[in-house]
Amino acid sequence: MPIRNKHALFVSLALLLALPARAQNATPDQRAFRDIYKELVETNTTLSSGDCTLAASRMAARLKSAGYPDGDLHIVTAPGHPKEGGLVAVLPGSDPKAKAILLLAHLDVVEAKRKDWARDPFRFIEEDGYFYGRGTADDKAQAAIWVDMLARFKKDGFKPRRTLKMALTCGEESAPFNGARDLAERQRALIDAEFALNEGGWGRMDEKGKRVYLGINAGEKTNQNFRLEVTNPGGHSMRPVKDNAIYHLSAGLMKIGAYDFEVQNTDSSRAFFAKMGPQIGGAMGAAMTEFAKNPKNAAAAKLLASDPAYNAMLRTTCVATMLDAGHATNALPQRAGANVNCRIFPGVTPNQIKDRLTALMADPQIKITILPGRGAGGPAPKLTDTVMKPILAAAAKRWPDVPVVPMLEIGATDASHLSRAGIPTYGFTGIIFEPDGSRLHGLNERVRVRAVYDGRELLTDVVKAYVQ
Ligand SMILES: [Zn+2]
Question: What is the pLDDT of residues 2-50, one digit of tens each?
Fold first, then answer.
């Protein structure tokens, strides 16, 4: 193309240089997906300053331009939560007797402070084979995969037998308001389905980028926050006393930090370790095989517990995540508080954990309160052939050597709300994470470009098989 003037050349060069997010070696099809993904990551959806309703509207606009009538696109906002809206989209099936399949993902992301990150968390950046940005892994890759899939199905004239539904919701991470729970309570018919696919499961690669397993989550731990608080009359800091709110709280927290809850197991966690043992090999692999055979083997459990991800599958965990204390630099603290975040093993209640923490800290000055949360999850979904066969087939087609491993989800997701509402919900993304867990909720969140594109293709095969 002829260059009309120097100014235009300069502008286009400047634009090129300002585009760190350019797609590297992507097919036109992948670029279309990537464009949706980029728009989602660059739409801030944190609770503090973001807007899920805006993200939902943008995704609705994408689907509308792909040919969805307004009647099949539902922006859902609950009263009093104008920025915590979501989107339900419907691709009607040809068989009125066949129940729908639901694709679920959350739009909201964990807070991210620009000054702490190496790159702007709300810019979508492709660099060195990774997508960087808040939500690239949790959970905007999956949300973008669903939107792109529905758009492609419509454009391609694909007519499913079963109705295919998609729900993108807000408030999964931290908000008191939860979009998935809201849908289950107020719009149950809109999202009714035989089962749902959601975030979770993921997969793991080793340090060299070799795929170790692909996970499918069936059942998950309960995420429960506890408020610990000590109050004290305080006084002037020039006249300290030993009875200090900060010291009471700190001593209690140190005991929680040093404590390990008892080892437990479920069918899915034993299946996980049985499958993974031969894959991992070495001492860790042997410990997995041994634990799967005999979960009472303390030496095997101890070795497994040295890996934070495996440890989380063995027991309830509790960890201090936030602190607030004192009111002046020259005053004895009148109040010291902490948030302790527990991931509770299935079958154990928040009240039992509260009792355990109370006994462990053994300090009546530390008051413990159970904070509002998701509540206990629903029953663990069964690994039926309807769900599993398409997943196994799609995985075997690409990666015959990579096992598909049922697992107990160590994070907590919106699956609990839907499972409780009678929609069995599985965690399956087809996306294989780094050994560092792709820094979910952490700094410089990222996911391998190849892993996202692979996951997208895998999920397309799986969903097509479900609805055909
Ligand atoms: Zn998530």
Answer: 334 444 444 444 444 444 456 667 899 999 999 999 999 999 999 999 9
Using an 8 Å Cβ cutoff, are 190 and 88 in contact? yes
> Where are the domains positioned within the chain?
21-220+379-467, 222-370
Cα of 43 to ligand 1 centre, how many Å?
Answer: 16
Q: Render 374-402 in DSSP notation, one character per residue.
A: --S--PPPP--HHHHHHHHHHHHHH-TTS
- Per-residue pLDDT reduced to its tens digit, 154-197: 999 999 999 999 999 999 997 689 999 999 999 999 999 999 99
What is the CATH superfamily name and number for domain 21-220+379-467?
Zn peptidases (3.40.630.10)
Question: How far does residue 138's CA lie from ligand 1's centre (Å)?
Answer: 5
CATH class of 222-370: alpha beta
d(CA 177, CA 107): 13
Q: How far apart are CA 441 and CA 431, in angstroms?
A: 17
Q: Which residues contact 46 (CB under 8 A, 6 or more apart)?
A: 108, 109, 110, 111, 112, 134
- What letter does residue 433 receive in the DSSP assignment? B
CA 106 / ligand 1 centre spacing (Å): 7
CA 135 – ligand 1 centroid, Å = 8
Q: Write the pLDDT tens digit of every residue in 197-246.
A: 999 988 989 988 899 889 999 878 888 999 999 999 999 999 999 999 99
